Amino acid sequence: MITDQRNFFGGNSLTHEMECLGFSVIPDVLAADEQKALLEVLGPVSGAGRRGLLSLPAVANLARSGTILELLRPHMRSEPFPVRAIYFDKNSETNWLVPWHQDLTIAVRSLAEVPGFGPWSEKDGIPHVQPPIEFLQEMLTIRLHLDDADESNGALRLLPGSHRRGRLLAGAIQTFRQENQEYICAMTAGDALLMRPLLLHASSRSARLGHRRVLHIEYAGFALPGGLEWNDPA
After folding, report:
1. Domain with 150 in it: what CATH number?
2. Whole-model pTM?
3. Radius of gyration of the chain from Cα atoms?
4. Distance between CA 73 and CA 226 in Å, rounded?
5. What residues make up the domain containing 61?
6. CA angle, 138 as apex, 1 and 173 as ends, to 5°?
7. Distance between CA atoms of 190 and 148, rounded to whole angstroms?
């Protein structure tokens, strides 16, 4: 188990880290006053969190801000734009674990039969579909931490380099876990994590009081084919 990203590729550029590891930790992206203002906008949630947050002007403006886009541009071939935002609040009352997985689905406005897209599913009434692997390889997620996070309160766990293996079935995930060290994303409030959707990640239940709140924003740099549209673009 590794808790310091430098132990993987010390001294290399963030672009090289993203290519090799599939993630990069960026400290001090949001100042304390920005975190407070964002938490006021997001408010309390029931359940694990909230979807569809790009409809909130404060979230959409942050997602399109120069501060955030400048972090993403070196890792994307086209100009990035936000396509989905989710707010997670893991706490003593709403506590969950997430098994090892890749983020394989995108949210779209309506179902359309397009070659290579499928299977389909639905979350909170919104159609979701698995796109061809090449689309996922061009996407990037930023997770903005609004509380300190470590192993004790369900910080994200990553398997560096797994994003380069394509779409992985359960057996391949287990093999990769056995052969590689995981990384614990110990973060301070205000830090950001950039990660590829295909990177294997998991999280444990929180073992202490308090919140572990994260604003998760997904980005693309392309339009969808065959009449498909992003459900929540900003």
Report:
1. 2.60.120.620
2. 0.93
3. 17
4. 26
5. 15-220
6. 35
7. 8
